[in-house]
Design a protein that fits this description.
This protein has 527 residues and is α+β, with helices and mostly antiparallel strands. The chain contains 15 helices and 20 strands. The chain has helices at 3-25, 30-36, 48-51, 63-83, 105-118, 135-158, 188-196, 213-219, 279-290, 327-339, 356-385, 387-409, 416-445, 450-482, 486-515, and strands at 45-46, 53-60, 90-94, 97-101, 121-126, 129-133, 168-171, 176-182, 201-205, 208-210, 228-234, 241-248, 253-254, 258-265, 271-277, 297-301, 304-307, 318-322, 346-354, 413-414. The longest helix is centred in the last third of the chain and has 33 residues, at 450-482.
Length: 527
């Protein structure tokens, strides 16, 4: 054996053993891996269909998108009337329509001109003027709202950095979203809060406060001042009102200016959420706090007051939210704020728990199918190709070790379709060897020596193998990029399996032939 061949054999053996080490670690319980200090503490992850988990179908209330669009248009109308020194009693948004009440003749003419200028409103009544969005614009607004909700939920749940590993968030029909979270990744209640929170953050100066709503109303003779409303701080478990606050109808500043939010601890080691505004938001927040030193500032998320601290000094770009929440609740709140606000509410229409028993049965059946396929392929290879078939079988075993090792090292997710991809890999793995062996047979029939036939057979088969497998690999990569859930799981194992199969056929099988017969002079080749 030459020095070059020894080096090749040692490198291939070390590589296979390394991946075999990572592959075998998957079958050791995680706590044992952690205690050993030697085995890798992470490995192959199981998808929802193999380990169970949470399955939700969310309904998106897209009518709220239409309402928000009409409210924005109403604000623009008020600005236009104000610029023309015109006024109306009020602008009402309800049931998907915008109505202008108490408008004198000059204002009606201006409203009519404004509606025509927008290009997205159609008049459905003249007295009082009442409008609705055109059908095409309603479709556009609803589609935009659906895409915004989908994007925010993906950032909250399926984001690879701040989300839940291996979760799936995908669209289902016109107004539904499918969410799947593998079991053990997050508590059900915590995940539910991430879904339900719209993430609409408001900062409002507190005008008055009392421990109970009745006391607060009594101070104002039962009637709230104009353009004000009540906001409540509630106990998270019982829902009991802890404090009632009198605040403005509109927010002094909203969470639209937030650029970051993170969970931290104060000096007393109580969980808080630190937030950072954009430059424009920081300027507005600085003006607000400097003008209200000594007053309380209510921090309101989804109409719930989290805290109402006293403004003791001017605050600029950074601030913090204090409240009666746990570390997990503070972390969830930071995720909601950081990922952005849901433009419209969502409701859980369907909720299912996928048990791990089905997954265990699927794993057992998948393993059994792989073993049966492996035995049949090995038996056929040895019976048909003799010693060369043993080489193919050895390369096939090494292929499986490398396949599982690569998936473990990169913490890939194994799903039920992924198991099907492994079974397919077992069936296809010997295909490259068959191409090589048949090429060698052709050269032997052409009266070439065994050594020359092996060299020529590998050279002729190289581009055929690469062409077929690169095409399959490209298809798998497309499935991985644009597929979701089961399709992506299948694409992962298929793409890795294609690469490892080519490596096993062109490198490991060739190494076996170089070891025997190698440079030996033999009369015939067992193929």
């Amino acid at each position: 054996m030459t020095g070059n061949l020894r080096m090749r054999a040692a490198m291939v053996l070390a590589l296979v053993l390394l991946f075999g080490f990572y592959s075998g670690a998957n079958f050791v319980p995680k706590d044992v891996r952690l205690e050993s200090g030697v085995l890798p503490d992470k490995g192959l992850r199981l998808g929802l269909d193999l380990q169970g988990g949470i399955h939700w179908v969310l309904g998106v209330e897209l009518a709220a998108s239409v309402k928000h669009e009409l409210e924005a248009l109403g604000g623009r109308l008020e600005e236009r009337l104000s610029d023309g020194n015109l006024s109306v009693d009020r602008i009402v948004i309800e049931s998907g329509t915008l109505s202008v009440l108490g408008a004198p003749a000059p204002a009606v003419a201006e409203v009519t001109a404004w509606a025509s200028d927008t290009g997205v409103l159609v008049e459905i009544a003249a007295d009082p003027p009442r409008y609705e969005l055109t059908p095409s614009w309603q479709t556009e607004v609803r589609e935009r709202g659906m895409n915004q909700v989908l994007e925010v939920l993906r950032r909250r749940i399926a984001d690879p950095i701040q989300g839940i590993p291996d979760s799936v968030v995908t669209r289902q029909g016109d107004d539904r979203i499918l969410v799947q979270i593998p079991g053990g990744q997050v508590e059900r209640s915590s995940a539910r809060e991430l879904l339900r929170s719209t993430g609409f953050l408001e900062f409002k100066i507190v005008m008055d406060s009392e421990p109970a709503e009745e006391l607060l109303r009594a101070k104002h003779d039962g009637t709230l001042p104009p353009d004000t409303k009540l906001a409540y701080e509630r106990d998270k478990e019982s829902g009991r009102v802890l404090n009632a606050y009198l605040v403005g109808e509109t927010a002094d500043i909203t969470g639209d200016y937030l650029v970051d939010a993170r969970m931290n601890f104060d000096r007393m080691q109580r969980p808080i959420v630190e937030f950072t505004f954009s430059t424009q938001g920081g300027k507005l927040f600085q003006e607000l706090t400097s003008a209200n030193i000594g007053n309380n500032l209510a921090i309101i998320l989804d109409n719930n007051v989290y805290s109402a601290p006293t403004i003791r000094s001017t605050i600029g770009l950074r601030g913090q939210i204090e409240g009666r929440f746990t570390s997990q609740e503070a972390a969830d709140l930071a995720v909601v704020l950081r990922s952005g606000a849901l433009s419209v509410p969502v409701v859980i229409e369907e909720e299912r728990t996928v048990g791990p028993a089905l997954g265990a049965d699927s794993i057992e059946r998948g393993v059994n199918a792989s073993i049966v396929g492996l035995i049949l392929i090995v038996a056929f290879s040895i019976a048909y190709y003799r010693i060369s078939g043993i080489y193919a079988a050895g390369a096939l075993f090494a292929n499986l070790l490398v396949l599982f090792g690569v998936m473990s090292m990169f913490e890939a997710t194994l799903t039920l379709p992924g198991l099907a991809g492994i079974v397919l890999t077992v069936g296809m793995a010997v295909d490259a060897n068959v191409i090589i062996f048949e090429r060698i047979r052709e050269e032997l029939r052409a009266s070439k020596t065994p050594r020359a036939a092996v060299a020529t057979g590998f050279n002729k088969a190289l581009w055929t193998i690469l062409d077929a497998n690169i095409t399959t690999l490209l298809t798998a990569l497309v499935l991985f990029e644009y597929g979701t859930g089961p399709i992506k799981g299948f694409a992962v194992t298929l793409s890795i399996g294609v690469v490892t199969s080519v490596f096993a056929a062109l490198v490991i099988t060739r190494l076996f032939f170089d070891l025997y017969p190698g440079h030996r002079h033999i009369e015939s080749l067992s193929i």
